[in-house]
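Ticket #4471: structure export looks truncated?
Reporter: QA, pipeline team
Priority: medium

Steps to reproduce: submit the single chain below to the structure queue and open the exported record.
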Amino acid sequence: MHRRLPVFLLACLAGAAHASPIPALEPDPSAPAGACGMVTTSARVPEGIDLHPARVLRAGEHRLRARNLHRLQPGLHVLVVAEAIAEKDLSTVQVRQRTQLRHRNVDIYKPLIVEVRPDRLYRVGVHLMRDQLDRASIRRNAYWVPVVYEEMQQSCS
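Actual output as written to the record:
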């Protein structure tokens, strides 16, 4: 169905070496048995292009532990992502509005669809949309989008 989704798909709507990879929503039938890819988040993201840290909370139906490296089976995954934009990157008013958003239990998470390939590492972050930092956009949680900002070859074993 979605065999060729691009890696940098922005959706509109963080595994130990011994852990089993999380199964894909739509597995890749061509992947070798036991193959996996990895998704990571980091406090260090490229500067100067409004990329910021993220937290990946779930992969499909699987709740992820609080670490920042997760092994996933090859195939299509829907990641649930939260932003971790530092307060220093927002004004005092914007920080207050974001805090109010979180206290209202508004859906502050966003999905990110990633097609994981074997022996690949995907770095996930959030893109701060500076033109969407008005009060209404913050109330709608429309000021950021989750992104895969880097994909690189890395053995999963």
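Status: closed, not a bug. The export was complete when the record was re-opened. Leaving a note from the reviewer for reference: Residues 1-18 have pLDDT under 50 and may be disordered.
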